[in-house]
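Hi there,

I know you've been waiting on this one. I reran it after we fixed the sequence typo, so this is the corrected version. Both the input and the resulting structure follow.
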Amino acid sequence: MHCIYFPPEVGGLESHVYYLCRGLVERGHAVDMVTSRSLPGAAAHEVRDGIRISRTWFPLRRPAGWITFSLASTPAFLRAARGADVLHAQTFASVPPVACARRLRKRPMVLTLHTSHFLRLARRRLWRPLLRRLVREADHVLATSVEIAEVAEALAPGVKVERIVNGVETSIFRRVEPSLPPASGRRVIVPRRLFEKNGVEYFVRAVPLVLESEPLEAIIVGDGPERAALERLAAELGVTDRVHFLGARRHAEMPGFLCSAEVAVFPSLLEATSVAALEAMACEVPVAASRVGGLPEIVDESVGTLFEPADPRDLATKLIALLRRDLREAGKRARARVVERWSNARLAERHVQIYADLVAARGGKAGG
């Protein structure tokens, strides 16, 4: 496998790929991951939960950096691909090194399209020919939402894209003891990295509106370039004592934080299928989310609520209404839905079947 980011990086993509790899190892398969040294101090080579990881040089977190890393990681991926049965590109920027190995090693290739970055770039005329070529390189294409699948199929007519929602490790994300003491009012959590596309600004703007009806306390778990501006906004709106920025936390800490809140809020402006929203649901926490991307595919009124993106008033109205409902029953339904449809066990089994079918189609037999 090849992926730009991998733990100890924190995020939905990183969580999905890590637990998929671990699930494959638990089923007796050998997994090599080539990724970036995006965090200082990350080991160049290590074995984690049976996953053999190689990290290569990474210049910067923007498209030019992804492209540079992609090309520079090709030698490492070619080495890792020796003896592999299947090659898997976990982002569109992973395609060049994986496609190179596909040609040299004569092995089938899978591509998964995950993120809103793909959707954003697909809207740009100059990027569309490149993205079309990348999508056509793979023998099997997966997408984590209907929207991403439809965009990919429109880019590359004739290519069939399978929708496969990201999975959740339901043995870890479940109801646990809260990490925070009880709130004085109604507590909600916003588990979002602080980037513009995640729309946290509109949540902060909604807080004074919610406070007109409910004694709200909000905890924001995540960090990013928008943090200083969001803290200033909270001060300008007079809600500093009601909005608490906890910064980035380890993935293993998240069940306790999620279970400290009554509702999880996802005010995204762009979104594929949010792993973080599924993790909240797995912890029996109802979700209030923007009506964008793949979020309406996982959230409805039986497990939470949807509001219009970039609309603080609609966010506040829908959140107030949700807080006045039977949250315990909504949370139970949310977990049952994740366990039934989006557990990592189901995700891993489907990937094993895809890999086996591709190997069989080439007249080979997977080594496992």
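Quick highlight: The first strand starts at residue 32 and ends at 36.

Best,
R. S.
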